[in-house]
Write a structure and sequence with these properties.
Layout (H helix, E strand, L loop, with lengths): L1 H52 L8 H21 L4 H15 L17 H23 L5 H32 L3 H16 L6 H44 L6
Length: about 250
């Protein structure tokens, strides 16, 4: 009898130990998933705030700014739900709500873009636009952006990216031409022309830049032809001089 009781107690202890272990593992799994989700939402907030900071360099419409602010708000709301006792997160969520409610409508500034002075700044600007377009695609795929707004804003950013690419190549081409590096200038202008010719739409900017680049390339072609003709003429004159010296009557001493 005593042996039976001992066996039952041992079995009960084993069952309890297994149950406690399972509960602990489940809790650890939930905590791990919670930390993972918190890290995900934090990354979304940091990415969105970086995009907003870039608004001083990238012309953004009010629609885009509201989309980014809403993205931050939603991420903070998710974090508060995961950490309901966090006063810091609740305060940030409140500030986010206030920011959205107090957003002031401003006139569009699509032409506010100022080209950076060096290649490093240009690369950073292009990367910022690419990140912004990725954010818009992500929010659109979640159904948080109206399709019409997404199409308009993505096209505007696409044109902005095109403008930066073309203008930077033209700027390099002009600098190379001013330094009498005609071959390098032609390469820059040809690259810009290929870029502007590859777009699937036509507007005032595309038409204007295509004509401008055609003019530059035509001028460079004329300069190169003149330079080659001059080089050929000088070479012919030199060869003639050499022949004159070779066949000139020898002086008698």
């Amino acid at each position: 009898m005593i042996v039976t009781v001992i066996i039952m107690l041992i079995v009960a202890l084993i069952v309890i130990a297994v149950w406690v272990s399972a509960v602990q593992q489940h809790k650890e799994k939930q905590d791990a998933e919670r930390r993972k989700e918190l890290a995900k939402q934090k990354k979304i907030i940091e990415e969105s705030e970086d995009v907003i900071l870039n608004s001083c360099n990238i012309p953004m419409s009010d629609a885009i700014i509201r989309i980014i602010q809403r993205r931050v708000h939603d991420a903070l709301a998710a974090m508060v739900e995961l950490s309901p006792t966090s006063k810091e997160l609740k305060n940030r969520l409140h500030e986010s709500k206030e920011r959205i409610n107090n957003t002031v409508e401003t006139p569009p500034e699509a032409e506010r873009l100022v080209m950076p002075d060096n290649d490093k700044q240009i690369i950073a600007l292009v990367q910022g636009i690419k990140r912004l377009r990725q954010v818009l695609r992500s929010e659109h795929s979640k159904g948080k952006i109206d399709t019409q707004i997404f199409v308009v804003e993505d096209r505007r950013l696409e044109k902005l990216q095109l403008k930066i690419n073309v203008e930077s190549q033209i700027k390099r081409g002009r600098s190379a031409r001013a330094a009498n590096m005609v071959g390098s200038a032609r390469q820059y202008f040809e690259k810009a022309y290929a870029t502007i010719s590859a777009v699937t739409y036509t507007d005032e900017y595309v038409t204007e830049k295509r004509m401008e680049l055609e003019k530059y390339l035509e001028e460079i072609s004329t300069e190169l032809k003149a330079s080659n003709a001059s080089a050929v003429k000088k070479k012919a004159e030199k060869e003639k001089d050499d022949l004159d010296v070779l066949f000139a009557p020898k002086k008698k001493w």
